[in-house]
Each structure stands twice: as C-alpha cells, then as structure tokens.
Amino acid sequence: MTNQRVFSGIQPSGDPHLGNYLGAIQNYVHYQDGNDAVYCIVDLHAVTTQRDPEALRTDTLRLAQVLIASGLDPENCILFAQSHVPQHAQLGWLMQATTSFGELNRMTQFKDKGDRTEFVSSALFSYPALQAADILLYDTNIVPVGDDQRQHLELSRDVAQRFNSRYGDTFVIPEHVIPPVAARVMDLQRPEDKMSKTAEADNGLVMMLEDPKSIEKKFKRAVTDSEDEVRFDPEHKAGVSNLLSILSAVTGETPTDLAERYTQYGRLKVDTAEAVIERLRPIQERFAELSSDPGETARVLSAGAVKAREIAEDVYSRARSNMGFLPV
Ligand code: AQP
Questions:
Q1: What percent of the chain has a predicted confidence (pLDDT) above 70?
Q2: Residues 228, 238: contact at Cβ < 8 Å?
Q3: According to CATH, what is the number of the domain 5-182+293-323?
Q4: Which of 8, 19, 30, 243 makes a 20 to 30 Å CA pair with 279?
C-alpha cells in the first residue's frame, strides 16, 4: 500500500546507539519513501527524567543531525521537535483522561526505568499517554519502532479505541512495524539485557557516533558462551544470536544463513564489527559536516514544526470538539 501516514518518535536523551539505529532509525529511512512520514524528536519525553538544560539543547540538535546523516531527508519527510508543536502536550492531557491508572501501572518500561531513577516523576509514569497523543495526532497508520515499544503501542491502540467508542470516530487506529531482525539489539556484555543508553557499564553499548577502533574493541570483547558452535538460538545462545542478528540487520542475510558460514566466534565478532563500522562510516562523515552548521539544523526543525502543526491542529480540534469542549 502506498501513501500511508507514518509516525515515530525518538528521545534526545544522549546520542543514539546501534539498537536505536537497527531497531528504529533504519526503518524511519525506509518508510519515508512513498509515504507521508512524520518523525519527531520527543524532547518532552526526555524530561521525564531530570535533564541538564544545556545537554537537552545540544542533544536535540545532535539527534536531528544524526537522523539527517542516517538518510532522513527533510524534503521527503517532516522532522521536528515535539515541544515546538503544543498540541502534543494538549492532546496528551486528553489522553491521560482516557487512560487508566491500572493500564499505566502495567507498563514494564516504567517499572524498569522507575527502579533505576532516584526521583520518579509523575510524567515518567504517564509518558505512554503522551506517546499515544504523539501518534494519534497525525492520523497515523504505521509506527516503526523497536520491540521494546510493543506494549506502549498496544496501549495507544486501546486508548484510541476507547476514545472513539466514548466520543465518536476521532482517531485512526495505528499499527506498529517492528524489523524482522534486530528489533531488540542486546547489550554486548550482558546479552540478556536490551542495549540501552542508561546501561550500567558502557562496554556493552555501541554508539552510532563512536570511534571505529572503540567499536571494534567492544565487539571483540562481546560476551558469548562456553560452547564453540555458531548457532542462531536467542533463548540458549543470547550473545552469539545477538551478533548474528546485528550482522543480519546490516547485511540483509538471515541470521540462520549467516550462522552456517561461521565455525569460530572470533571471526563472527570481527566480521560483525567490520560490517557495523562500514555501515556507520558515511553516517559519521555526514554528521561531521552537518554539525559544523547548527543554525541550518535549527532551521530544518523549525520548518518541520510549521508543517507538523498544520496536521496536529486539525486532529486536536477534532478531538477537543468531540470530547465536548466549547469552541475557542
Ligand atoms: N536495544 C534496542 N534494540 C532495538 N531498538 C531499540 N530502541 C531502543 N533501544 C533499542 C528503539 O529506538 C527507538 C527510540 O528509542 P527511545 O528514544 O524511545 O529510547 P529508549 O527506548 O528509551 O532507548 P534507550 O536508548 O534504551 O534509552 P533508555 O536507556 O532511556 O531506555 C524506539 O523505537 C525504540 O524501540
């Protein structure tokens, strides 16, 4: 099907990592062609945990530059910062009123992040309601995300359906798309855990802008197991299967086909490192060019926000009117 509305968001909570790239950004680039794609740097989500204001500004611009360097074309999609479109926060409130405490309380990501944070804000708890607003605000058909967002996406659908049945047909019910491989890239040191910016140690985390030598070192030290058989078996061989998934996501070959080609863990690690470094190289080069002109990136985001607001205002007006608010 062509010309679907595609929407996804990514947090400016530090530079993105290989999991963000293979699980999400690669699909953002894919879905911008032949669709109406809208991509949002979700800075309002980033402040659900305490952020240094200067770091938030820097990270927002850097993330926009990484996304453009990865292949997002602002002429071919809408790229903007969430806080520039006030309808996100406005619809977020209506979504909070349509989401139950019990539903939010069942979100596993809140439990994980809440346990790791000293000050647990109420915004961290209600974040999936804002995420539902982000998605529903654009009459979205397709949401490309990594596997960790599956539960939040299901909540967005439930909330949209509840709103539609209470107040009449208002929102399009979105579908999520998750990549067939590397939908959950695992930590290289603790392959039972998701690769994450907030990992305890950074040896298991590969950043998109990381120096190639450092990437190579991390892959060479990746935790595998005490066997010596290369087999794709995520349940019993998490480390080896993670390497095969990463290599598969970069080369396009299936993890099972790749496994047949290897007899040694060492060779698999070296080839995966090389493939990742080669995939990231042009992105890093383009990022270096873009980062020399932050003013231009800021202009791209402002122009994106103008286009995003046009769509968002329509959908928000529909929602507030159906809910019974008086016209302004
Ligand atoms: N490890 C991962 N594998 C595949 N996809 C992933 N995503 C995140 N981690 C992985 C996907 O990246 C997109 C943007 O994620 P986000 O900005 O919402 O950040 P996050 O999910 O909070 O990611 P992090 O890096 O793991 O941060 P923390 O440490 O804060 O939890 C989403 O589509 C997500 O699925």
A1: 99
A2: no
A3: 3.40.50.620
A4: 8
